From TrEMBL:
Record domain FAD-binding FR-type: where: 498-595
Matches recorded under SUPFAM superfamilies: Ferredoxin reductase-like, C-terminal NADP-linked domain (SSF52343), Flavoproteins (SSF52218), Riboflavin synthase domain-like (SSF63380)
PROSITE patterns tied to this protein: FAD_FR, FLAVODOXIN_LIKE
Protein name: NADPH--hemoprotein reductase
Species, as recorded: Autumnicola musiva
Pfam short name (any one): NAD_binding_1
Enzyme class name: oxidoreductase
PANTHER family: NADPH--CYTOCHROME P450 REDUCTASE (PTHR19384:SF17), NITRIC OXIDE SYNTHASE-RELATED (PTHR19384)
EC number: 1.6.2.4
Length: 732
């Protein structure tokens, strides 16, 4: 709830101030270049804290006919306004020790003057200044709410610089850049607000007033400047400006402006005749000026420059994310049946809209079979007159919390009594990078499970990182149970736009007991690929590709394919003959490549999921690989036997464990893991990489076993494996 309030205020503020913000950011960025370019003059004096003001004045007075002013600017440049012995008036950068002259102080360029005026008031005079002040204030609020959101998102301020988990470009870099630039942006905007408030006299007035009447002028003891008590121990780093006495009149003093106070010093006795500390308001003004303009240091000016650039990116990415999310929600729920007319109810829990996308593909497929589908958010949960099936797709946020479109669901669920029995399925969308992987989906599943009016149709399925392949695997299973062939529209990925490659059939095995076969293909051109990459094949007359995991063996592609009864693609591939040329697209699948360094690799798979491993075990000598395979019958493994035997002989595989579900002990690959739990836990603790390939239900079972083992026997958590790169998944 609080997160939503911050999110909406962050967004509303950004929309209102966007145009002015754009102009202020661009002009601010340009202005930050000025101190950087000034710094290239290299007139900076080091060790100002060791140079006494009295000695500098002494030197200046003996070197020039008259000295009018001495100024120390924030970049540590020392400027003197003098009248030379040849009666020439000069304002120059000097070295205060040897009085060498670096060069004249030039007038500010008209370009920077122009940009400064625009930045301060947008050429709208006082009205413009008010606007700019308000924009600075809004920017400050946006940055503060952004920082709060970021802290919340990362799981606390101590985790602010932990790995960023978002994979979407705009979302990811909104977070990555936010961690670095939100604080400088808060400083820029807060100082901007301060300077505007000062301009409009919102602070109490603070001009320094010296009480000259109290100054005794008649009696004084003349002293050398180096002996002046008022300048004792004052070094140049404390000075902003010194105005020299204009005449020898006793009422003319040295007016010394220091960082924290202003003094009048008697020009002959050197005594302090008046000293006034600057009020806090003025100190704030001096500091704000330094921080807002970057004049104090070129490094800070550079930070201001890139922070201004980052504001432009935040504007772009913020709006892009919002538009995407709004469009998705609008486009998806529109055009489906009303809730009391629909047979199928699809409810979605989403924060940024991606889950709506998946739900929409699923609903479209049902609609193409003339099914009446109602799609809405989980928060709109109600009673449904005719529905007999319900599918819930939901993301998880925060610490296992509900996403925005589901935050009222559980409460509503308790208040609303369903009118009849409904078969339900829950699909969780989440990320294994979070300790509470899909835990909100688990909550929802549990709630429905305990309710007498809801009957589970399938187990809870968890989709990691919005994997389309995993989603498709689930959709196929659901379709088989509901007796509806679910054909999902492919996401518009770079893959669909890829060029196809000609591939020649080199070998094709006979179907085994499980209707599975091996297909060996040779690319007709030199192309880069490796085991774990994917091959997309679209059979003639079909609209969509089917993806297969590749084994790369001696530059050939080896696939293991199950010929599904109604499978268009597997049917097409099983009918191929040697020498035939087919088309396919290769997709790099970096997340499932063999790890570059790992003390050991535990490969877990079932059925045809062994395919990518057949290439990996052949290629990686002495890699300390342990293979766990689950299948139906002893004969099911015959297809792979020679590849695995070779790897065992070469000692590439150190152990092989097979679980058969229809023979002998009739168990599954996850049961093998339980049997070998000592080995499994100690390997994981020593940094082993776990690779899992095969069906989603096998993946869920395996993950549950590993998760439970870690919980009871180790300090590591599943999310640690993901964060350490110890977990590689390719399930569908
Ligand atoms: C700030 C934040 C917190 C998240 N917390 C979790 C979490 O606790 N558990 C989880 O499984 N996924 C978590 N995720 C991942 C999302 O649930 C996942 O990316 C989901 O697909 C997003 O769906 P949506 O775009 O429909 O909101 C989190 C993502 C973000 C950005």
């Amino acid at each position: 709830m609080i997160r939503s309030v911050w999110r909406y205020s962050h967004l509303i503020l950004a929309v209102v101030s966007s145009i002015f913000l754009l102009l202020a950011a661009v002009t601010g960025g340009i202005l930050a270049i000025e101190p950087i370019s000034n710094a290239t003059k290299n007139y900076s004096i080091t060790g100002l804290d060791e140079i006494l003001v009295s000695q500098t004045i002494d030197r200046l007075k003996s070197n020039y006919d008259e000295v009018l002013e001495l100024e120390v600017i924030p970049s540590n440049y020392v400027i003197a306004s003098v009248l030379t012995k040849d009666f020439e008036n000069k304002t120059i950068y000097i070295d205060p020790i040897n009085l060498s002259e670096f060069g004249p102080v030039e007038e500010r360029s008209s370009f920077f003057n122009f940009i400064t005026n625009f930045h301060r008031s947008l050429f709208l005079k006082s009205a413009g200044r008010i606007f700019v002040g308000i924009i600075s204030f809004l920017l400050c609020l946006i940055a503060v709410t952004g920082l709060l959101l970021l802290i919340k998102r990362q799981g606390g301020s101590l985790k602010l610089f932990h790995r960023v988990k978002e994979t979407n470009f705009e979302q990811r870099y909104h977070v990555v850049l936010g961690r670095w630039f939100l604080v400088p942006i808060i400083i820029i905007s807060a100082t901007g607000v301060y300077l505007s408030a000062e301009k409009f006299e919102l602070f109490p007035s603070y001009s320094v007033k010296h009480n000259r009447n109290e100054i005794a002028q008649d009696e004084y003891e003349q002293k050398e400047i180096s002996e002046f008590p008022g300048l004792k121990n004052i070094s140049l780093d404390q000075v902003r400006k010194i105005v020299f006495p204009f005449s020898e009149d006793l009422e003319d003093f040295y007016q010394v402006q220091l960082n924290d106070r202003e003094m009048l010093i008697h020009q002959f006795s050197g005594k302090v005749v008046s000293a006034q500390k600057y009020p806090l308001v003025q100190l704030g003004s001096i500091l704000s000026m330094k921080l807002h303009t970057g004049e104090s240091s070129p490094v800070w000016a550079f930070i201001l420059l890139i922070s201004s650039g980052s504001i432009l990116f935040f504007m772009y990415s913020g709006f892009a994310m919002t538009l995407k999310s709004l469009n998705r929600k609008k486009a998806t729920t529109f055009g489906y049946a009303l809730r009391d007319e629909a047979e199928y109810i699809v409810l979605v829990g989403s924060e940024t809209g991606n889950t709506f996308d998946f739900a929409n593909r699923f609903c479209k497929s049902l609609k193409s079979h003339d099914k009446r589908v109602h799609l809405s958010s989980l928060n709109e949960y109600a009673t449904y007159e005719r529905a007999h099936k319900m599918v819930i797709f939901t993301a998880t946020y925060g610490d296992g919390d509900a996403p925005a479109s589901a935050n009222h669901f559980l409460k509503r669920f308790e208040q609303i009594n369903p009118k009849h029995l409904i078969e339900y399925t829950v699909v969780g969308f989440g990320s294994m990078l979070y300790p509470n992987f899909c835990s909100y989906a688990e909550n929802v599943h549990e709630k429905l499970d305990f309710h007498p009016s809801f009957k589970p149709m399938m187990q809870l399925t968890k989709i990691n990182e919005q994997s389309f392949e995993q989603f498709r695997g689930w959709a196929n299973n659901w379709g088989a149970k509901a007796d509806i062939p679910v054909h999902l529209e492919l996401p518009d990925s770079s893959f669909t736009k890829k060029k196809t490659e000609d591939l020649k059939v080199i070998d094709i095995s006979k179907l085994n007991v499980d209707n599975t076969f091996l297909l060996k293909l040779k690319p007709q051109k030199k192309i880069q690929f490796q085991s774990g990459d994917l091959l997309g094949i679209c059979p003639p007359d079909a609209r969509r590709e089917r993806l297969y995991s590749i084994a790369e063996i001696d530059r050939y592609i080896l696939l293991s394919i199950k010929n599904h009864e109604l499978g268009k693609c597997s049917g097409y591939l099983s009918s191929l003959e040697k020498g035939q040329i087919i088309q396919g697209k290769i997709e790099k699948n970096l997340k499932f490549h063999f790890p570059v360094t790992a003390p050991s690799v535990i490969m877990i798979c079932n059925g045809t999921g062994i395919a990518p491993y057949l290439g990996m075990i052949q290629k990686n000598n002495n890699a300390n690989i342990h293979l766990f395979w689950g299948g139906r019958y002893t004969q099911s493994f015959d297809l792979y036997q020679t590849y695995v035997d070779n790897a065992l002989k070469e000692r590439n595989i150190r152990s092989l464990e097979i679980a058969l579900s229809r023979e002998g002990e009739q168990h599954y690959v996850q049961d093998l893991l339980l049997e070998k739990q000592d080995f499994l836990v100690s390997s994981i603790e020593n940094g082993a990489v776990i690779m899992i390939c095969g069906s989603i239900s096998m993946q869920n079972g395996v993950m549950e076993v590993i998760g439970n083992l870690l919980q009871s026997r180790s300090n590591l958590k599943m999310s640690d494996l993901e964060i350490n790169g110890q977990l590689k998944l390719d399930c569908y």
